[in-house]
Each structure stands twice: as structure tokens, then as C-alpha cells.
Amino acid sequence: MNTTYDVKLSGIQHRTDRETPVFVARWRIAGKQKSKSFRTKGLANAFMSDLRQAAKAGEEFDIASGLPVSMFARKSIGPSFFEFAQAYVLGRWNASAARTRETDAYALLTLIPALVAAEPRRPAAEELREVLRIHALLPVKRRSALTATQTAALSWLERASLPLSALGEAHVLRTALDAISVTFAGTPAGANTVRRKRALLHHLLEHAVEQKLFGSNPLDEIKWTVPKAVTVIDPRTVVNPAQARQLLDAVPNVGRKRGARLKALFACIYYAALRPEEAADLRLRNCKLPETGWGLIVLEKARPQATKRWTNSGETHESRSLKHRADKETREIPIPPVLVVMLREHIAEYGTAKDGRIFATGTGGTYSSSAHSYVWQEARRLALTPEQAASSLAARPYDLRHAAVSLWLNAGVPAPEVAKRAGHSVDVLLRVYAKCIDGQQEQINSKIHDALGT
After folding, report:
1. Which own/partner pairs from 4-9 qualify as long-range (CB within 8 Å, at least 24 positions apart)?
2. What is the pLDDT of residues 251-292, one digit of tens each?
3. Domain 239-383 bears CATH identifier 1.10.443.10
4. Average pLDDT, the chain
């Protein structure tokens, strides 16, 4: 390394002649012009401040890179965890659903601030998370402008982030695992949350292995017990047909119009086992509703809710392919006469939205999950006893789907057919609903008795 003390700092130039305007920091090392571009003036100022402090401290500068020796050492050992994580999440953007983008970012809000060096003047934790949430983990065109305080926080993260190579050390990985084991408030995190965040870290390191930055995934070498998550349905949440009818009958009594507009949507969740986001995107062309007898729903899309910054459209709801299905793949669900009648009555009363959606607000929008939850909780209060309302019985609208699948299984519908209608694989179906398959013990015992010939 050739070094020098001959450093002259110039200034910052705002270049607007490019597709994306940038701020260019300029300085000279041993008479050679150097420059570095930044997205914001604040980042450029912070970089020039680092150079200025190094020069005042009498630090040598590397002639080839133009950086102080300390900064060059950090740069030469590869990308920082922050840089790699940022590239990772943005590289997956186009192929990911909005909720996946949000889940990835949520995990990185924990990991990036945790994997840093002990640099002075650390910003508050919420400031670091906010600058990641609204700026650093979004594509350039979606990033919010940063305040001076936020710019300083981002600059601090860029300086303090550990090199990705440091994750090859067990104690660094344990720092990451400790971080994902608690909430932002410092309380123990739920098992599902911990598992999702660890999965993101594991996948990110697998990506690093693909790029030859690690010979193998260092996380695989850490002896750390992943918390067990609940993967089976609690039978206490499952309503019987009489209770389901009572709840659905109570829904129209909530509010002036909202409850009445949502009754048939909740009925689709119960009688057809639709996911709420599938019901939200159900369109008239997806339904065969004869005047008598069974009908048919042919699902094409779902309409999940996500934070606007993570969706393609910038809207809270947008259509996407069905969960666990290829693009344009459909799912057919025969529906009983009671649901056919409800859908026909709903369409006759409220019509459809301009795009053909059956369930829409009075202005053609999509009801939020909070609206669903409010109406459902009020319906539970009206339809259930105080003890039942205080219990986990049908605590969420989604529990109607669990009740539907449980009913079909207990009615003797073959598991492959139930899985096909519900949009599950058979193995997931039987594992998740194992505790809800009830009422067949005598029949099974009888079959075993006959087989034994006793």
C-alpha cells in the first residue's frame, strides 16, 4: 500500500445531469483527483467530515483508493453486513410479494442495527429502524427524503456496520440470534417471529455462500435451538355449524351498512374455506350461482393487505396469484346452496365494484383487516355467551376457515379432496388439523376389532 499525508479536500458538487441526481465529494491525494458519489448531500457531507477528521488526526491516506488507512482497511475486507443485506433485499424485490418484502425488511430492522461496531454517537434504536424502513431498504424511486438527523443516522450505520465476513465468527452470529429473540421493546419475541427472522438470516448467508463469500453457511455450525412454533389448529377456536350460523346472522347487525356488506364475505370463509384475502378478490366471473343446488367458485387471485411502501402499486391492497400456486393457476371449490343464496342476495343488493369484485366498500374500495376484525368482534359479542366471547372460540375471521376444513374432514371427505378445495398439500392439511379430526374413534376401533377377528 502506497500512502501519503498530502491531502487536500475540495468540496461537494451537485450533479443534476444524470438520471438520478447525486452529490459528488471531491478531494486530492498526492495531487491526484478523487471523487465519490452519494444519494444525498447529508451523506456526502458525512463522508467529507470523516476524511477531514482523519486528516486532522494525522492519519495516512492510501493513494490508490484515496481513503484514510482505517477506512481502506474496512473497505478491503469485503462488503459490510448492511451493504450486503441492502443488496439482498433489493435484489429480491421484483420476485417477491409485498408481504414477503415487508417480512424481510422487518427482520433486517432487527439484524442491521445489532451487527455494528461500537462507534461513538450511536443514534437511538428507533431512528436507525426508521431510516431503514423508509429509505435504505426501499428501491431508490420509493425512498423518502431524509431529515438531517436521519441522514446522520444512515451515515452512522454505513460506518459502523460490521463486515459481512465477521459473521463467520460464532460470537457475532450469537449476537444476531440474541437480537432476533427479543422484540423492539426488549421482551421475549414469539416463536414464529424468531423463526421467520432466523430463516431470513440463514437465506441471506446462503446467498453469500453462492457468491463465494463463505465456503459454507456459518449459521449451520451454531448450536442454537430454534423455538418451537405452534403449527396445529387449536380445537377450542373451531365453531360448530350452529355457532357459525349464529355468528353469520349477527354480522348484519353491526354498524349501519358495514356488517351487512361483510356477511357474505365471512360466509365464503366458512362455507368455502376461502382465505380472507381470497374472498376480498372474488369476482362475479369466478362464481357459478345457479338458482337451485350447488354452485362453484373458481379462484384466480387473492387480494392481501400490506403496507403501501411494499406494494407494487403503492396501494394497501393489490391482486396477486394464489398462495402456494403458480401464476394464473386456479382453484375450484364447490359451494353449498346456502352460500349460493347468500352470494346471489349480496350481488342483488350491492352489485359489484367496477372491476367485478363482489365485496367492496360503498366507494368501491377494499375493506381493511381492521374493519373485518371490528365487525367480527362485535358479531361475537352479539352471538356468543359472555364466556364464549371471552374465550378463543372463533376469535378471528380466519378461524371460520379452520372450522370449514375441520367440518369437511370430520364429515369423512377424503383428505386429498379437502386439501384440493382448501389450497393445502395433504401433508400440511393432516399435520395442521390433526387435533380437529374428532368423532371417529368408535368407527376406527370397530375396524381394528374386525381386522383382529376377535
Report:
1. 4/29, 4/30, 4/60, 4/61, 4/63, 5/58, 5/60, 5/61, 6/30, 6/31, 6/61, 7/51, 7/55, 7/61, 9/48, 9/51, 9/52, 9/55
2. 999 988 899 999 999 999 999 999 999 999 999 999 999 999
3. yes
4. 89
